[in-house]
Design a protein that fits this description.
The protein has 247 residues and is mainly β. Helix content is 8%, strand content 37%.
Length: 247
């Protein structure tokens, strides 16, 4: 699908800059391209192109406007997903409306956008670009955001894994049902199972059956020793690891 580009600009510099370069927090300002964002830790003005626009400035501005809290200063755009995860923000490869898409490939310093709509393999985003005046709304491919999408902390409750039945299942070479109990264990979620050798595989779809504060899994546990599992929401919220022994 061809990108549909709507550009809000004050001046055009002979065409759009094709390679984005979203810079970090040097020379932070509260105002950029007619927008006011008090406390914004990112710079806006590009002295080389004489333009106002920076993807990190816009990302911080939109998060402050919609999430209603001030994000930390996470530096260059390409580092945002890792910094967000370290700060316990949910980060998922699944896009959502009112999330921050993060790419490490759209420019040397990466690129961030604010997601306005999701349509299959594309997202409609609001973004600024370093060296381009103002902001723009456009369609982009979801795959461009290889670092994922940052969700607000309060988007969904975090799953809690408390108990497994049977607590010590048998190590058999065929499928068996095991049931994880806890809190916020309802669809849609997936469960990552990690074997004693460190291999991880995902249990999902028809392999899961939901009960009251529980999820049952139809799985093969074919190795004895200590296993672990984690319940995950599609937006990246996940439980702490739950460890159990396979006999």
């Amino acid at each position: 699908m061809k990108s549909i580009l709507t550009i809000n600009v004050r001046r055009m510099l002979g065409g759009l800059v094709l390679f984005l370069a979203c810079s970090s927090s040097a020379l932070a300002v509260d105002r950029c391209a007619g927008l006011y964002s008090p406390g914004n830790p990112y710079q806006c003005y590009n002295t080389t192109t004489n333009t106002e626009g920076n993807c990190t400035w816009m990302g911080w501005y939109m998060a402050n406007t919609v999430f209603h809290y001030s994000l930390p200063s996470w530096g260059n755009a390409g580092t945002w997903a890792g910094s967000a995860a370290s700060a316990n923000f949910p980060v998922s490869m699944t896009p959502g409306v009112d999330t921050i898409g993060v790419s490490s490939t759209l420019s040397t310093n990466g690129h961030v956008v604010w997601v306005l709509k999701v349509n299959g393999a594309q997202v409609y985003v609001r973004e600024m670009q370093w060296g381009v005046q103002g902001w723009q709304d456009r369609w982009r491919n979801t795959a461009d955001f290889n670092r994922g999408f940052i969700y607000p902390k309060a988007a969904w409750p975090r799953p809690v894994a408390s108990w497994l039945y049977p607590y010590s299942p048998w190590g058999w070479n065929y499928n068996q049902w095991i049931t994880l109990s806890g809190y916020y264990l309802y669809a849609p979620l997936v469960v990552d199972l990690t074997t004693p050798t460190g291999s991880t595989y995902t249990v999902q779809g028809s392999q899961l059956s939901y009960g009251y504060n529980s999820v049952s899994m139809y799985v093969t546990l074919n190795g004895r020793g200590t296993w672990s599992l984690r319940a995950l929401w599609s937006n990246g919220q996940r439980s702490d690891p739950f460890y159990f022994t396979v006999k």
